[in-house]
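User: Design a sequence. Structure:
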């Protein structure tokens, strides 16, 4: 008799600090089934710093061999850069840079390839209350390709 089981495994390595549990890494293994047969395996590992910031993600192919790494950098608690590495030698594939205003609101995202060529630019605008007003997405040539506007309705007191 054959038994098929769908498995979601979360392996957590933790630190005990002042009575508080801090996650150092999480490993997620997912097996997808079709007609009771495994058709896809995925694995992803996430690594965190002592402040709880995600500092690295490792993605694996169907043979559970690492094929992509994303490293995250922070300044003053804000994400400022993602470095995406791919391929057998994990060479830099793209770099994503985040910019913030003095209120800590994200105002721009720049996505560049390994040579520094701009691939995409996303610009956010906020109203006087600090609510997101718009999101504009530009391609590498500076052409507007998407615009999202936000409107809000509030409860009356």
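Assistant: Done.
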């Amino acid at each position: 008799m054959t038994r098929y089981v769908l498995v979601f495994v979360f392996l957590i390595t933790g630190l005990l600090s002042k009575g508080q549990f801090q996650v150092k890494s999480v490993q997620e293994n997912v097996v997808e089934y079709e007609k009771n047969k495994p058709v896809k395996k995925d694995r992803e590992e996430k690594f965190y710093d002592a402040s709880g910031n995600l500092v690295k993600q490792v993605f694996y192919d169907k043979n559970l061999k690492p094929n992509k790494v994303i490293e995250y950098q922070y300044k003053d608690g804000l994400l400022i850069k993602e470095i995406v590495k791919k391929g057998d030698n994990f060479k830099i594939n793209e770099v994503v840079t985040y910019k913030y205003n003095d209120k800590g609101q994200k105002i721009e995202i720049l996505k560049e390839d390994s040579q520094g060529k701009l691939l995409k630019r996303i610009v956010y605008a906020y109203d006087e209350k600090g609510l997101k007003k718009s999101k504009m997405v530009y391609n590498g040539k500076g052409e507007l390709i998407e615009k999202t506007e936000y409107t809000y309705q509030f409860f009356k007191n």
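The first strand starts at residue 8 and ends at 17. The CA atoms of residues 38 and 138 lie 40 Å apart.
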